[in-house]
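Incident log entry.

Two folding requests arrived from the same account within the same minute. Monitoring flagged them as a possible duplicate submission, but the sequences differ. Recording both here for audit purposes.

Request one:
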Amino acid sequence: MNDGGGCVEMECPSPDPPPGSGAPHGSGGDASETYCLFATTSINQLLKSGFTHCFISQAKQHFELIILLHMAFLLVSSYLLLTYTQGAPVENGALLETLKSQVGLFSNKSEHYSTQVRPPGTSRRIPQTIIIGVRKGGTRALLEMLDIHPNIVVAATEVHFFDWDENYVKGIDWYRSLMPFSYENQITIEKTPGYFTSPQAPERIHDMNSSIKLLLILRDPTERVISDYTQVYYNRVESHKPVQPFEEIVIKNGALNTKYKAIQRSLYDIHMEKWLKHFSLDQIHIVDGNTLIKDPLPELQKVEKFLNLPSRIMSSNFYFNQTKGFYCIRSDGRERCLHESKGRPHPVVNSTVLDQLYSYFREHNSKFYRMINHSFDWH
């Protein structure tokens, strides 16, 4: 504070000089300037003095500090509440969920975990379980529903570590950095539907952890093809791109277009064969996607058993949303449904085309049933 004239002084790094000023670029970063507030005689002089740059810079720093202090306060308060209530924070599911929501342990938004505050006693760990697919099989619904369990933490986004070369070359530490913080008795789950159909993913996951447990959610292959088409259709409409009717894509020159990617993804036997070269069948639990959307609890209880977890998911955690036409989640006083992009209406498909799809998949389905020693009620 200047003793004469009510001048407030503040110091901050000088910005780079404007072009043509004669000063070398970057020279401002090594010095600091003192700005006198309220003594400048005009707005133009105030702006030219560089005060605006200084003020914004310091205001930003102060704001970030306030945010960090607030998060730290919430974290400590929640931790003490958990400790005094149960003596072991990880045993109280409801309070743990409160802690997660208070300090942003995870959410279903696209966020990077490096910005999170680390709760005491936690660490980021490589997933012990991965949902490997299949695309449009119900992977998001499965992940959201498993997220109810207090002994499960989930990665917020699809990482595509094992199926995209550009991510795989970043290394295992990069992969770990994208995982949420977890306690020792919690299982970290990541889901990327593209893994199931990826030629490289089975071997790469096996190289990381040969004893890992895998979850695979499947649905009727013909329904999956139509759902796959529906997602692409709406994405193209929203991007103002041209679209084709389903029949024109699936049928080419009067025959089934078996090269269509959506059809290729539904050849479960071909993809499963690659996984069984690296993992035993008892390491892969198959979730019935058609049953999960109609009656979630029995399928989730099977997953709890497969993961050796105590039974914590209950029927009260779900309610049927008549508007959306599928089950939504109720957990710790909060209700949430899947994103609006889920459960979109499918196009009405020509019955002749449907019969061609059913016929094509029938042999592949039979082979798949023999591989896994189990059958499904598919067409």
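Request two (distinct sequence, not a duplicate):
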Amino acid sequence: MAPATTSSAEARRLIGSRRRTEAPRRMLSPSPPPKKVKSMEEILAKAHYAVVERGDYGDVGCEQCGSGERAEELLLCDKCDKGFHMKCLRPIVVRVPIGTWLCPKCSGQRRVRSFSQRKIIDFFKIKKPNLTEEKCDSPQDTRKRRRRSASLVLQKKRRRLLPFTPSEDRSQRLSQMGSLAHALTALQMEFSDDLTYMPGMAPRSANQAEFEEGGMQVLSKEDTETLEQCRAMCKRGECPPLVVVYDSCEGFTVEADGQIKDMTFIAEYIGDVDFIRNREHDDCDSMMTLLLATDPSKSLVICPDKRGNIARFINGINNYTP
């Protein structure tokens, strides 16, 4: 049998058809996915920073006050290379930091959460003031008018508590209360202006002045009136001129937002009342002694870890996380 032969034209057709059928296979080969281009902001946010030092820092000024004086108190940020006076920063830097130092903007300092006026009123359970009610004078002001001829020595011997003077600007007071609401919310605390007695802790009957070893000092009538006046102001939303700020090292601290005289009543220390024996191994960072009894098992402490007010941040004891 003769071998099969193929003409050159047929061979060309076969080759051509083979090429036509094989060509699409090369086109269907997987191509690399397109590379995602990152923005410059994303790159700079994750990149290690390096500051190129200037040849002359004579023209550097404080970003807060704009002054270049007191060069020995100017701190230079190790990221943005901008200057800040130690006393212009909030909180104030009391000593020159050791090692790397970043300004509040570059360190990613926590931004204060904003609270609307309605949320602030609901958070602190502020009572609506009676518009017909006139502002009453403090007991100290009334007695001052009566005894203008009293000697200075006698007044110094009988120093009494003064009621705090709230800020006159309503928006400023809302800002102050908003800072406290932000701090309490961040620590998952509830606001309270009274001592709380929870089940499983010390009962109200355990907090008796007669249990105090050596006796307990009793407030005078004038100081009691001052205390009641301050409580009434707080219920109306007239708070002490204080603002709660956050520091990356110290946590939440308190700054004065107005003039406060000596011997001014600020706030009562508030929290859950418990026996000290129940808190011997507690890691709460702001416990305060309430009662030291002759019988140690009856001694009480205030624990502001669940409920409290601004006094929890005034004590300055590491208001941060464990």
